[in-house]
Amino acid sequence: MMDLRQLTPTQDGWSATTIPSEVYRSLQESHFWELRYRRPSPVAQDPQTASETLERENMTGAVSHPPLYYVLGALWLAPLRSTTIWTQLYALRLLSVLASVVSVWVVYRAGRWLSPEDDFRRLSAGLFVVFLPMHSFMGATASNDAMVEMWASMMFLFLFWIGYYGLSTGRAVALLAALCLALLTKRTSLFLIPVALVGVLSCPDVFHWWARRFPCLKVRWGLWLLLSVVMGGALLIVLVVCSGRLGISWWDAADRLQQLTERITTRGLDQYVLHTLLGFASFWANFGWMNIPLDIGWYIILAFISLGAGLGWLKMLLRSCRKQDGNPSVRWMWAVCGISLLLLAAQMSVSMIARDRPPQGRYLFPGMVPIALCLIWGVFEWFPERYRAPVFWGLVVWWVFFDGAALFGYMLPYFYAGRM
Hints:
Structural class: mainly alpha
Number of domains: 2
């Protein structure tokens, strides 16, 4: 884009620049094939051979990505065009770090709305994002994952803002802008469309407006929320199917759904269970191209922590529903978090079946806000209020220890064994 000074069709941009040769040389110099596949790099003598090699090795997927990250990245690198490729790489990594910092702040800010008087929970949620090993890894790489997470986090911030303070034109515009920016960054943000739709339709302001205008409907908020979730889930499945890679035209959604159904029936359930477990491991810590896992004991511990946090969060929801006290906007925010997790899981499942491969954990990062909030509040639910400080410091010690063990014990030795 910097060479041509315009957005071009994929094939024109690919053939009009020296990208294939430069990408091939960069991959070869960084020992890409040796690190990922444990085999020598293929030989390419000229640009045409380099382009064919990258096509054969499935290294051209990024040219079909939504363009926003690459446009902003090109603008970010414009003042550095005369510098080395390493300087430009570190500049893009800095851009990812800044985007990750925004996501951490949003988690902390949303926690203030959920528990205004509890510093320990919202600090724990923010530190969870900071010290999540896979987030530490991806938050310092030159990729679009940190940026789509940032836009998605901002969308959740504006959505919670609407639910907490009421719907207004400015807040609605901000919500729509963040949603559009996320969609223009990466397709893993598709689930945000039904989340925003369900969230706005079910927020206290909008629901009470409908109840006043149409009293004859007599629809309870819970039923209205359930109907919104069903509509949003159906919309999400269609969106994911239409953006998948099943080898047919995007507008032929019926054929895509049929192929999806056939694939489910022909594959065994155990395969999808295995793929789901690999995705769970990749969310926490399975670095590189899901080829640098931790020892199995770590994942067993993380599974118990996740199960306990999930049960604690459900316990908190049941307690809140029974008492029917507190701020109704807070209950709505928790409902949005739960709906977001369900829609994100549905998106990952459909994508996993359509692609017929394990989902990568970083594809969950657009839902980091509800994930962090539900996990941390679920953990704290099991402990009396007087133990909040010890629980907080226990979590801090655990996150720092786990992040350090994963990064310095597994990831860094793999990539930098000869330099450490």
